[in-house]
Amino acid sequence: MRVLVLLTVLGLVLAAVPRHAHAADRGLAGEFMCQCGCGLTLANCTHLSCGPRDQALAEIARLEGLGRTRGQIRAAFIQQYGEGVLAAPLRRGFNLLAYWGPYWVIISGALAILALAAAWTRRPKAVVGADDPGLTAEQRDLLERELSNLKD
Amino acid sequence: MSEVGTLAIGMAFLVSLYGLVAPLMGVGLRRDELVRSGRNAVYATALLLGVASAALLYAFVTRDFGNAYVASYSSRDLNLLYTLSAFWAGQAGSLLFWALMLAGFAAIVVWRHRALRELMPYVIAVLMGTTAFFTMLLTFVSSPFARLPFPPADGSGLNPLLQNPGMFLHPPTQYLGYVGFTIPFAFAIAAMAARRLDDEWIRAARRWTLLSWFFLSWGVIFGMMWAYVELGWGGYWAWDPVENASLMPWLTATAFLHSVMIQEKRDMLKVWNIVLIVLTFALSIFGTFLTRSGVLSSVHSFALSSMGPLFFGFILVTLAVSFILLIARLPALRSAAELDSLVSRESSFLFNNLILVGAAFSVFLGTVFPILSEAVRGVKISVGPPFFNQVNVPIGLGLLLLMGLCPLLAWRKASPKNLSRSFLIPGILGVASAVLMLAVGITHPAALAAFALCVFVTAAILQDFHRGAMVRRSHGESYPIAAIRLVARNHRRYGGYVVHIGMILLFAGIAAGAYSTEREAILKKGETVSINQYTLRYEGASTYPTQSALVTAATLTVFNSGNQIAVMTPQRNIHNTHEDQPMTEVAIRSTMREDLYIILAGLGEDGTANFRVIVNPLMMWMWIGSVVLTLGTVIAFWPERGEALRNRARYVVEGP
User: Fold this and answer.
1) A142 contact residues in B (CB cutoff 8 A)
2) CB pair distance less than 8 Å for B365 and A97
């Protein structure tokens, strides 16, 4: 049940996050890598004069002018430059490892912590100083504050 | 002077090798004089690398272009400050800089922690072993003192991208961070080797980790500032492999700084803390490996070389030695306590660690995925900003949420009363702020969630601080005095809170990026372009030479809702030594609300100018957050009175 809840929450969070949440991702220029070798996207290429970038941006503008959809432009670029032109790998096959690997790790870790915590908290523990010291709620509150401020 | 430098580096290599072997032999043969000798080797190595560094600086200042390194990274028209910063502009110089700082840190450690007699032989061995690796590279692979057979009349000059004040700050702080992580690593290895797995090593390691974390934080921040003002694409973080390499050890070190509290408080997570320290050190070296090897294309390509395999081998040896030792000491690293409840500060810190390490893994996987893909599928792919943003935004939001939850949960077991007392008001404020932001039109889901969480965390921190001050006030202190004494009584806790406030400001600035706007325009003289409330009028361009470059500056008058507010001059420079690499100098007008960022993308022969204009909201808050983060780290680092007294007592008892 807990797994389902976690997965649902994660799914909701992922669904809530737009595909292009960063300032750098401005339209399609943020989706394609510049082919000049800078290792950055067309939107981020640091070269002031960059032939490959300008050529690619002109190609995007031309295809947009022809009424091509984003998907069609993406397909045209993949056909021309290969899959490496995409700044984010396609969500399929082996690439899913990159997309879901971190979440698998985090969810597995969370489940491990939950299991460990459940096992530990079920064990009977020696009770030390369990007698009620007879403090009022306010005194207990004050003590808790003082203790937490004493050393943390 | 080159001969002096070469000799000093060669001797530093030999002495650091001796410093690796002598203390270990001293322990094995029970001969204290060998350990003392190893300690002296640390000081000698620092001195020798100091001499080598002075020789290199002398070569730069005297324009000794017979030195290949000086000829490659400086020129006669380069001003003195950039000439000095050219020390770390290339590979050999930055390796020397790294080795110098490592030896300097090692000397401080040996002097400062001399009372830790059982740990020090191993600490010295690890520090000197690492120094030996770097001095070996300097001696046999990449020397900053190599001579040219025919010295040129002038040097090639410094890469124009590096001619920025950030060059003085970004590399040194970044290296100080990376290098500093060697110290906690050395203490962790020493604790395992000496079987001294009590709190002694963790105290030293924690402080050095905090210091290194501080330097690395500023290395990353200065890098962001440098990218923002120098690279000219309007952003500060491009998820470049080398940027990612600096983020990974930062994340694991942050995890350690949190989980170490659980070890100190509850004697738990001993194995985990050692793993985090080893990972942090290995990831620091991995960053250098990425910078130097060129296995991934990067904006930091000015520092490529063929020494990648050596770094990779060093990482493997480090990991192998560390984990063999760890496995051997597992029985002694058993936790003394267990979790009492899932709803407690301990367990929330575990989740915090999980998220931080998960984030580091996510960045690592994304960074190396092109290599994995090529190896497995034979297909070359790219992993850029869209991927990292998709994967890391939810993780970042989770981290932000835990930043508010962790510090306020009670140790051992949080009662329902503790939960409502700590989170009711911040929770209400967080939800209310989300509703308010929706009402004013902030609908971007991730940004909305981030802003609401920022409000929640800030409210939680301020509420806890206020309550602490009120408790002291009930003892008769005035509120300001109570607040000051509260912080003075517990530097770590409240310093940590201030760091969190700094991080919240950073998160807010990052989230605001979702609302940045951009326009491109080709303008003739007198024409205008509008973006948001701004109107920019192009007044014309002028070209003039400076000492090192030919500058073309375009002048724009900026109006805000019809009122003239500024005249801005974005530039396009052609440096004398790099004529094939025209550089943009952006014009930025910063206010607390937003940055107006103008790039002169090009000039047409018909007198037109091509501009890219970007409005980045809340940018200044990121830099303010960085300052707040510094303040918090200084507070947390400042020794508390009890700690200072303990140190003094130890000094008096054990002697210098």
Assistant:
1) 471, 474
2) yes
C-alpha–C-alpha distance, residues B179 and B42, integer Å: 15
Of residues A26, A30, A120, nearest to B339 (C-beta): A120
Q: Rounded to an integer, what distance in angstroms lies between the CA atom of residue B630 and that of residue B169?
A: 15
Task: Show me where the domains of chain B are located.
Answer: 1-149, 171-406, 516-619
Please give the average per-residue pLDDT across B45-71, as a whole number: 95
For Cα atoms B178, B179, B183, give the angle at the middle one, nearest 5 degrees.
Answer: 115
Nearest-Cα distance to chain B for A75, in Å, is 15
Domains in chain A: boundaries: 2-88, 91-123
Using an 8 Å CB-CB cutoff, list chain B residues near A84: 370, 379-382
More confident residue, A106 or B291: A106
Element (H, E) at B45: helix B32-61
B179 has a pLDDT exceeding 70: yes
Q: Chain B closest CA to A81's CA: distance in Å?
A: 11
Q: How many CB pairs under 8 A join A and B?
A: 205
Higher pLDDT, B291 or B99: B99
- H-type helices in B525-656, by residue range? 619-637, 641-654
Model ipTM value: 0.82
Distance CA B29, CA B6 (A): 34
- The interaxial angle of helices B120-136 and B32-61, nearest 10 deg, is 30
Average pLDDT, integer, range B116-121: 90
DSSP letter at B383? -
Inter-chain residue contact B361 with A101, CB threshold 8 Å: yes
The shortest C-alpha distance from A79 to chain B (Å) reads: 13
For the segment A24-48, the average pLDDT, to the nearest whole number, is 77
- Identify all chain B residues contacting A113, using CB atoms and an 8 Å cutoff: 347, 350-351, 354
pLDDT band of B287, cuts 50, 70, 90:
confident
The type of residue at B574 is I
- DSSP secondary structure of B216-241: HHHHHHHHHHHIIIII-SS-S----H
pTM of the model: 0.87
Q: Does A143 reach chain B within 8 Å, measured CB to CB?
A: no
Please, are residues A107 and A10 in contact by the beta-carbon 8 Å criterion?
A: yes
CA distances from B51 to B5, B9, B97, B334, B475 (A): 7, 9, 12, 46, 58
pLDDT at B409 exceeding the cut of 90: no
Select from A40, A16, A27 the least CA-distant residue to A70. Answer: A27
Q: pLDDT tens across B514-550, in order?
A: 999 989 899 999 999 999 999 999 999 999 988 778 8
Query: Could you say which residues from 306 to 365 on chain B have a Cβ atom under 8 Å away from some Cβ of chain A?
Result: 338-342, 347, 350-351, 354-355, 357-359, 361-362, 365
Taking the Cβ of residue A118 and every Cβ of chain B, the question of whether any pair is shorter than 8 Å is answered with yes
HSE-CB at B16 with a 13 A cutoff on CA atoms is 32
pLDDT 10s digits, B221-262: 999 998 898 887 788 998 888 889 999 999 999 999 999 988
**What is the distance in angstroms between the Cα of B141 and the nearest Cα belonging to chain A?**
27
Contact A94 B376 (CB under 8 A): yes
Q: Is the pLDDT of residue A4 over 50?
A: no
Query: Per the structure block, which two tokens stand in for B533?
Result: 């409330």
Say how far apart CA A116 and CA A110 lie, in whole Å.
Answer: 10
